Amino acid sequence: MASHGLTYEGCNFLRQRLVLSALSGKRVKIKNIRSKDDEPGLRDFEANFIRLLDKLTNGSTIEINQTGTVLVYQPGLLYGGTVEHDCNPQRSIGYYLEALLMLGPFMKSPLKATLRGVTNDLTDPTVDLLKSTALPVMKKFGIDGEGFDIKVRTSWYSVFVEMQSNPGMDKVAMHVILYLNLSLVLHPQVVKRGMAPGGGGEVVFTCPVRKTVRPVQLTDPGKIKRIRGVAYSVRVSPQMGNRIVESARGILNQFLPDIYIYTDHMKGANSGKSPGFGLTLVAETLNGYFLSAEMLSTPQGQGDPILPEDLGRNCAKLLLEEIYRGGCVDSSNQSLALLLMTLGQQDVSKVLLGPLSPYTIEFLRHIRDFFQIMFKIEVQKPLEDERKGGDKVLMTCVGVGYSNISKTLK
Amino acid sequence: MDGKVKKQKQHQQKHSGPKAEKKKLKKQNGSTEEDERKRNPKAFAVQSAVRMAKTFHRAQDIKTKKHHVPVVDRTPLEPPPIVIVVVGPPKVGKSTLIRCLIKNFTRQKLTDICGPVTIVSGKKRRLTFMECNNDINSMIDLAKVADLVLMLIDASFGFEMETFEFLNICQVHGFPRIMGVLTHLDAFKNNKTLRKTKKNLKHRFWTEVYQGAKLFYLSGMVYGEYQNQEVKNLGRFISVMKFRPLVWQTSHPYILADRIEDLTDPERLRTDPKCDRTVSLYGYLRGTHLKNKGQVHIPGVGDFQMSDVNFLPDPCPLPGTQKKRALNEKERLLYAPMAGVGGVVYDKDAVYIDLPANHVKQLQEEVRPTTELVQSLIETHVTLDAKMAASKVSLFSGSAGLDPTDISEQSGVQEGLREIHVWDAHTQTQRRKVVFTGLEEEEDDVSGSSSDEDDDGSDQENQEEEDDLSTFLKEVRDKSEKATKGSTPPVKKRKLEEMQGEEEVIAEAPAFADSEDELERGEADSEGEGEAERAGDSGHCSKESEEDSDDEEDGDEDDESMEEEIGADDSDEEEEQGTFKWKEGLQQKASAAFLRHQEAAPNLRKLVYGSVVEAEDSEEEEEELGGLFRVNRPQKSKKVQADALDCSHFNPDISHNWELEEMLNSIRDCFVTGQWEEGQDAATLLKEDEELYGDFEDLETGKVHKGTTGEQDQAEVKMDDEEVQKNKRLEKKRRLKERFDTEYDDGDATYFDDLKEEMQKQAELNRAEFEDMDDESRVQYEGFRPGMYVRLEISSLPCEFVTNFDPHYPVIIGGLGTSEGNVGYLQMRLKKHRWYERILKTRDPLILSLGWRRFQTIPLYHIEDHNGRHRLLKYTPQHMHCGASIWGPITPQGTGFLAVQSVSGVKANFRIAATGVVLDLDKSVTIVKKLKLIGYPYKIFQNTCFIKGMFNTVLEVAKFEGASIRTVSGVRGQIKKALSTPPGAFRATFEDRLLMSDIVFLRSWYPVSIPQLYNPVTSLLLPVGQKDSWSGMRTVGQLKHDLGVRNKPSIDSLYKPITRAPRHFNPLHIPKELQKALPFKSKPKLLQPKGKVPRDLKRASVIREPHERKVAELLRALSTVHHYKKKVAQRAHHAKHKEFLQQKEKDEEAKMKRMKDARKKLYRIMGQKDQKKQRSSLKGTPQDD
């Protein structure tokens, strides 16, 4: 009766495997984790991730051999509830949050996870990016409601800086922005930003529970109507933010006038342990899809320092690259969208993506392993005279008809 | 009398006159309610607003009650046959009915009904009949797969328990359509009793199913068959019946197997007859899409992993879409392999293939793919190895076969050839020049003219860089090359090798997908060329990123940099030869890269899904390479990939330089500021509006504005061809209609309508998406769709399944959803069935039917207290729901289940013990039972007291410090602190002083763990004839009964004769003081018992003299006589008086009569006088009066 397990080698894509295992209920065994390495076995952040998974589930068994090179995970029930977790500063909170986004809607009770650690670093998508892109993607799948949020900062300061950097902005717009920010301020959020390598940030992720996910047809991305962004800086001169904004706008203004980049400077207790600055840019299309890019300063004491002007410019170029790739879901959330399509009803879902990232390709293979679902992949080449970036990929699949078996029936 | 009966006058219709004319008019006009409303508006006016509101409300209520939650219609275009289960107690006529129906539909006689029988009943409908025997296992299984149930009832006997049991099973597992059929109606001789019985049975049936459920009457038998007309009517009912979707059935794939083959190697069977069997099962897929390699459950056998699934041509296809009305004889197909029709007949140890004359063609088609295999297996006399050695593989039907020896000869050469791909650039200039991922290959191109050294170097690199993907791509390319170029020997070998590899590995991929791909590629290539000619060089950069993703997959973050490195190396090498040579290389590279992009697109699917298989393939090759020796390669890239950084970032393509205007221009249209599509452009939209609403007349000025449509149209005709115009017009029309709809229709639409429309759209999309695909590839995306005839292969079925196979028992293969294959804790709501006679006991094993499964488990019953605590119950409540927790298969919440205590044998009474629904699948269950710890005081102070006997150690007491305790008499207290001696004793305080005789107890809750018993009912594995005798774990009661074990009862609970000692009460003593204070009434009356009367007070007795005595005697006698006389006289007087009274009454009467007469006379006279007077007064008063 014991369900057959799946066996993999190496620690790459560990999160995917464990998340899919938890969702599908299939046992997974991962062998040869850095077996040829000088330091064999699981790293601290991976162990930390497994610990987080253990907190979220109920009745799961995890076996790790002595050297840490073999991991056997028998998933339990996704329990959710209130979870507090200190993330390992080797990886940012984004690393953990990506997995939580996938698991969140299928818990027994609504998830409220407080994650502490590095909010922004170079390797993983930052919390700001996930908030502005992953949440809208999930909303398209019907995962929405009161308590669906990743709580990340907002401060008064940004408003004024924005107003300063936008001399052309009229009074009405200013009022609108003031009003919007006021409404945000009214919900106090204890959020601290923490840059790599020190960390010290805090993020609260709340997610409601769904029994089923609805099928989607995201085929027409629409045109980009506005670009928003956040330039944040902690433990450095507050001027950094403005410098970033200036340079980024310089590039993006060639395309669109509707660009607001907020600056967010954190002070004191909210600023974490390490200095740093960065920029997250989000482009919103007419049909409500979000493409994003981000760039960070190199962490303190690692590599050459980067000028804020360069950072802003490079980040803007990254956004252009992302727009060039296009699609309805940006490159870092491809796997999330594909997962939700897979877990949908037994109906056809379609989504238009940019070129598939290697992470996504591996994810597709994993989906086939765990759910026996194959996607129909169609490449849409741009027309001759079209100036809409590169090839797009239309992914089509029939959902497995997944229903949240953790949720209680009353 | 008969003659006198008056015949009623017949009604004569009027043909003339006003009435007839009125009628005629009515007939002609057909007056409706509307007319009446118009004619007589007052009659239809609102009389009462409240009344109207009420009626409206009621109408709406009724309307909304009919609504069901809309679901997406997922029925396939060609649905599977409808499963009709014929149920009923034995000897009721089930087989006869099936026979009759089959004869009715197909004009064929089927004598032995064995297993499912599939027939074509109409142009759009097929039916599968399945007879359900009296075993509760079969009943449960078939209720889960039935679409329609024909419930046979012996009318001469009435309802039997089986009928009700089956109805209850159906209620739990989703209610299929149920049609009752009354048989044995010819047993009634009296017409009236027949009618009465019919009515009674009908009403009882209605209460069970629903009011107005169809009950069919089969009145009698003719030559052992039911009457033709009645069977025909029943058949008509069946063929027009509509079905509602059942939740479980629409969310799970399932197959009712109609054919089974044992594929086990006969050699293995010979050596080990009890080995696990490889079995292929055939049947129509129903429910939802079935995924290959999924998990299935076979009720009565267990859970299995499907090793392979493929679809076969339909053995019983629907007729083509002709216009004609009825089916012809050839289309009335019948397929029942288990019953011996449709090709394969089962015998004990052989399979016979039966080919009736009229079905030869179809059956051959059907039998071809698999039965050959079976036959060959059956007929094997040599081992497989020998056969393999002798066999030849031919690649093309015309070509000569290849021996395995050839392959072994060539394999050495092949390895050598493998890495060297000599590209003939001159012959193949135009297409698929270089499509490799690494740059090495491109270099090879160059090296066609350059030195050997170069070649070697690149080869080395090639080997090092070799990863699964590139080899795969190479192979694909080779193939395609071959296809275009014709066969060169080395390529052919490679192809052969591939074919072998595929035969081994690719099971789910269609066998000849490669060749298709070639075609596809061919097409794609030609297209690509076209594009290549017109497209600029900057437009295709992103494809590179797709390609690059292969490299990135290797895990290296900076694969690009690696690429660059290689490039640098090349240039270095080439610089030696000539300074300008690198430019040439660049050009080559650029063109190669471009072509590579062209190739990338159609390959994306293979890139994602195909490469894994190939990777395994290549690994195997490496291992078997030397035969004896293994080449120990570092496999660096693979390791790096396996342990690379786990990160979802997608690094940008470095080739994109966003400084360049060209690059920036390539995304201009992604922004709202860019150019819009023709359909959405503001200018066009405006123009269109003008076209639509262009012509208008300004009423004020009287000026007529004309749209410019006509002219434009003409212009367009000149410019474009008609096709475009037509499309445009259609588009315009559509938009206009949409606008109209939004303006006028949507106001009426409710939420329900919107939802329904949405579902409708989704259903259409589901249908359309994969419609134009061929089945082979479609199956990969959606899985096998319902309606297909599929063959499942299961590799490790227990041998009893095959050896004890009985076609009368249904073999159902139920697909399991995600994580339904796991076992865990389930919490359910359960209610004992009200017809089940006994209550159920906690921890007694119970057989549940849940999902597809039947299994024995040990439930714990519990009930939720007000504070949310789940308290264990010893027994199920009589008429209430309670909770039940079990260890069992994970099944989605909301699934119904039923429980029976045993599945063996037929008992007279109702077998279904309980029903319920799954609520929760929680792995941490907290069921608690009440625990009372008892202690005794051994030392009592004022309110404090020392208690012993409740605990055993100090530690235990420490755990319970502060806990509240109570005595039996109700004095409350608290545990304070442990005492050192005796161990387990403690100090406690109470609200009052205790007595030594008090008993102190502590009330606590103890968590109970659920026993982990999950024992699937393996009834199909039992020998033929004993399949209904499965018995699992016995209850404690049964065990005791069977083993004759009796518990010694506790002495205290034994009954003993009651001996009651007479009770002695002390006299009531009231203190003197109190006595004094009491009122006299309540004072104890201290009357002295009467003493002796003193002598002086005593009266003397009279003693008479004899004379006196005589006198007294005489007086007494005299008085007696006197008394008697008086009595007699009185009696006489009484009689006389009575007589006198009678007389008096008589006289009175007579007197009254007389007086009455006299009065009468008087009144008459008076009356006459009055009359006279009146008369005279009328005449006029006489003067003299």
UniProtKB/TrEMBL annotation, chain A:
Residues 219-323 form the RNA 3'-terminal phosphate cyclase insert domain. Residues 7-153, 186-377 form the RNA 3'-terminal phosphate cyclase domain. Keywords: Nucleus, Ribosome biogenesis. Gene3D superfamilies: RNA 3'-terminal phosphate cyclase domain (3.65.10.20), RNA 3'-terminal phosphate cyclase, insert domain (3.30.360.20). It is found in: Nucleus, Nucleolus. Pfam families: RTC, RTC_insert. InterPro entries: RNA3'-term_phos_cycl_insert, RNA3'_phos_cyclase_dom, RNA3'_phos_cyclase_dom_sf, RNA3'_term_phos_cyc, RNA3'_term_phos_cyc_type_2, RNA3'_term_phos_cycl-like_CS, RNA3'P_cycl/enolpyr_Trfase_a/b, RPTC_insert. The keyword Nucleus applies. One of its GO terms (biological process) is endonucleolytic cleavage of tricistronic rRNA transcript (SSU-rRNA, 5.8S rRNA, LSU-rRNA). One of its GO terms (cellular component) is nucleolus. PROSITE patterns: RTC (PS01287). One of its GO terms (molecular function) is RNA endonuclease activity. Coiled coil: none annotated. Transmembrane segments: none annotated. Belongs to the RNA 3'-terminal cyclase family. Type 2 subfamily. This is RNA 3'-terminal phosphate cyclase-like protein. The lineage of its organism: Eukaryota, Metazoa, Chordata, Craniata, Vertebrata.
UniProtKB/TrEMBL annotation, chain B:
Transmembrane segments: none annotated. Residues 719-776 form a coiled coil. Keywords: ATP-binding, Coiled coil, GTP-binding, Hydrolase, Nucleotide-binding, Nucleus, Phosphoprotein, Ribosome biogenesis. Residues 1-44, 438-585, 1163-1185 are annotated as: Disordered. GO terms for cellular component: 90S preribosome; nucleoplasm; small-subunit processome. SUPFAM superfamilies: P-loop containing nucleoside triphosphate hydrolases (SSF52540). Residues 1-27 have a biased composition (Basic residues). Gene3D superfamilies: P-loop containing nucleotide triphosphate hydrolases. GO terms for molecular function: ATP binding; GTP binding; GTPase activity; U3 snoRNA binding. One of its GO terms (biological process) is maturation of SSU-rRNA from tricistronic rRNA transcript (SSU-rRNA, 5.8S rRNA, LSU-rRNA). Residues 439-469, 514-530, 545-577 have a biased composition (Acidic residues). It is found in: Nucleus, Nucleolus. PROSITE patterns: G_BMS1 (PS51714). It catalyses: GTP + H2O = GDP + phosphate + H(+). The keyword Isomerase does not apply. This is Bms1-type G domain-containing protein. It comes from the Eukaryota. Residues 79-244 form the Bms1-type G domain. Residues 474-484, 531-544 have a biased composition (Basic and acidic residues). Belongs to the TRAFAC class translation factor GTPase superfamily. Bms1-like GTPase family. BMS1 subfamily.
